[in-house]
Write a structure and sequence with these properties.
This protein is of the alpha+beta class. The protein is built from 8 helices and 19 strands. The chain has 2 domains: about 110 residues, Jelly Rolls (Sandwich), CATH 2.60.120; about 210 residues, SGNH hydrolase (Rossmann fold, 3-Layer(aba) Sandwich). Helix 3 packs across helix 8 and helix 6 packs across helix 7.
Length: about 375
């Protein structure tokens, strides 16, 4: 190649390098896309609806009972739910359809949801019982220009359920009888006999229920009575907080349903009949003090015949005290194929019990 050819190649190389350097500089110096502007909706916004016992202020909503619900309508292409949790799981419903399970982690606060620009009805339900600990809802993060919308009216009826692991749905989505000591993923309080029955009766529900706890004796206690059975926590907004008393005037149920006694009687030493009945009567005194003569349904399943007899006796004694709106409902013990973790009912077993309870309550309340 001659000298002129070499010079031409050198000039071409310089031009190419200059062009590449110029483009690189332009790319590096180009301003980054601005972050999307957002607005924070506080937990106490009046367009956010809570169902269940919740302590709410402008910064946090605190709760621990099973099936606490957070609900709102929104027009936004996306949003972020803000939780400080790590101990609980939640069902996420969008327009009445289960979108996914939110499994919280202690190091994650923002849980994004993609939506269309049409209005959407969002409902979040706490799957897990107070045994797993409390949760904290910090609000909603929306893109600028989005808005919350008015919710439809609440259901016209209210039912309070007081109970144990059956009521919270312990193991109701389990893979079998042996869940290898893992329970959090398999508990879904939205699909228990209590919550299924409430929805069938067009009622919202509160679940005051704790796995492993009884009317006077908790599961496997070495004594015939325990210091802190379910009635001990009945007047609290959160099970774990004795400094947050519940305001009973804020939510008065049309009926109360109690299913307690399995943990009292499933291991030894069980309480004697008088002690157990005294515990049931003491709990109902609290309920009647708060709700007047609201109808009370005492429930027992066929798994423990002695518990059935004692529950029937409790109803008779309540009526003798003048509480004539006290009723006994016998529920079916789930069949072997309807049992999940540690012999607890699967959703299929809960559905059977819910149908029995609905029939009984409808016949009494004319609902």
């Amino acid at each position: 190649m001659n000298i002129i050819g070499l010079r031409r190649l050198s000039l071409l190389a310089v031009i190419l390098l200059s062009a590449c350097s110029s483009r690189t500089a332009e790319e590096v110096s180009a301003p980054a896309a601005p972050a999307e502007a957002s607005i924070l909706i506080a937990p106490n916004n009046p367009q956010i609806r809570y169902t269940g016992r919740v302590a709410v202020n402008e910064e946090v909503a605190l709760y621990d009972w099973a099936n606490v619900q957070i609900e709102f309508r929104v027009r936004a292409p996306r949003l972020e739910l803000l939780f400080q949790d790590g101990k609980n799981d939640y069902n996420l419903f969008v327009d009445g359809v289960l979108r996914r399970t939110i499994t919280t982690a202690s190091d994650i606060k923002n849980y994004p949801i993609e939506l269309s620009r049409a209005p959407h009805h969002i409902k979040i339900t706490k799957r897990t019982s107070p045994n797993f600990g409390s949760g904290t809802f910090l609000g909603i993060k929306l893109p600028e220009g989005s808005e919350l919308l008015d919710l439809p009216p609440r259901p016209p009826r209210k039912i309070e359920f007081i109970g144990d692991s059956y009521t919270v749905g312990y193991g109701n989505e389990g893979p079998g009888l042996d869940c290898a000591g893992v329970y959090r993923p398999y508990e879904n309080s939205y699909l228990t006999f209590a919550t299924i029955a409430a929805r069938e009766l067009n009622a919202e529900s509160h679940l005051i229920a704790i796995s492993g706890y009884g009317a006077v004796r908790n599961y496997n206690d070495p004594n015939p009575t325990s210091a802190t059975p379910v009635p001990f926590f009945y007047a609290r907004t959160l099970m774990e907080r004795d400094d947050l008393p519940w305001d009973f005037a804020s939510w008065k149920p049309d009926a109360v349903a109690v299913k307690l006694g399995t943990n009292d009687h499933s291991t030894q030493p069980e309480p004697d009949a008088e002690t157990f009945l005294q515990g049931i009567h003491g709990l109902l005194e609290q309920a009647h003090s708060a709700y007047g003569d609201a109808p009370v349904f005492l429930l027992a399943d066929t798994g423990l015949s002695q518990l059935v007899e004692r529950t029937e006796r409790a109803v008779a004694e309540q009526r003798a005290k003048g509480n004539e709106k006290t009723y006994f409902v016998k529920l079916s013990q789930p069949l072997p194929e309807q049992k999940g973790c540690d012999q607890h009912p699967l959703v299929s077993g809960h559905e059977v019990m819910a149908a029995e309870l609905v029939a009984a309550m409808k016949s009494v309340l004319n609902w």
